[in-house]
Design a protein that fits this description.
Blueprint: E1 3-7, H1 11-23, E2 27-31, H2 34-43, E3 48-52, H3 60-68, E4 75-80, H4 84-92, E5 97-101, H5 105-120, E6 129-131, E7 134-137, E8 142-145, E9 148-150, H6 154-165, E10 171-172, H7 173-181, H8 191-203, E11 213-216, E12 220-223
Parallel strand pairs: 1-2, 1-3, 3-4, 4-5
Antiparallel strand pairs: 6-7, 7-8, 8-9, 10-12, 11-12
Helix pairs in contact: 2-3, 4-8, 6-8
Length: 228
């Protein structure tokens, strides 16, 4: 059974979500503050964490930072509607996705299942992908650059794999939203931009100093082949 950790100080919301998620087949554990949330994320080994940004004491962004120091568990942030800064910072810190409050529980479940599908992806071609100094291992969901392992979140890995499979060609941003994040692109959603920015930072430039992932303005992204 899939285990969900809910980190939120709103007892009524946690109760309602817990009942709904239970009916959807999830095992739910809850933490009402940041310190307990970090402890539960590391000790209980949940399959996915749903984390509110507005928490008493340690806020959600600090909780996420602490979790990411020791775990790559998928994290979905609950943010205030219209608060772009918190969403972007959360994604930069390694959140896999976000859902703005108030939300329909069905949307949260859909986002959770999409994240879990990416992390547990077992279908398709599992052959290692090698482009220049980069090796992507779909079966192990690992990435190595110059032989050294690079730590990525589940969503970052899935986006990178998608771009590397099309290395040398431009991939439309709408296709990344549809095929990787499992939702339609909307003009104000910068999730993919932030994930790609994280990938650039973690992977660094090409050995010759060139840009590894190019943004093609108004179109999408291209993972650069060193011989292109």
């Amino acid at each position: 059974m899939t285990t969900v950790l809910l980190v939120d100080d709103d007892a009524e919301l946690v109760g309602l979500l817990g009942e709904y998620l239970g009916r959807e087949g999830f095992r739910v554990i809850a933490a009402a503050d940041g310190e307990r949330g970090v402890a539960a994320a590391l000790a209980e080994a949940p399959d996915v964490v749903v984390l509110d940004i507005m928490l008493p004491g340690m806020n959600g962004l600090d909780v996420l930072r602490r979790i990411r120091e020791r775990s790559s568990v998928p994290v979905i942030m609950l943010t205030a509607r219209g608060d772009d800064v918190d969403r972007i910072v959360g994604l930069e810190l390694g959140a896999d996705d976000y859902v703005p409050k108030p939300f329909n529980p069905r949307e949260l479940v859909a986002r959770m299942r999409a994240v879990l599908r990416r992390v547990r992806s077992e279908g398709g071609d599992r052959t290692a992908l090698v482009v220049g100094d980069l090796e992507v291992l779909p079966a192990a969901r690992e990435v190595r650059r110059g032989g050294e392992r690079v730590e990525l979140t589940g969503t970052e890995f899935s986006i990178l794999e998608y771009l590397v499979r099309a290395a040398g060609t431009v991939v439309r941003k709408e296709a990344v939203f549809r095929d990787v994040l499992g939702r339609r692109a909307v003009s104000y959603d910068r999730s993919v931009d932030v994930h790609v920015s994280n990938l650039r930072r973690k992977l660094g430039p090409l050995p010759g100093g060139g840009e590894r992932i190019k943004t093609v303005r108004g179109v999408g992204y291209q993972y650069v082949r060193q011989d292109s």
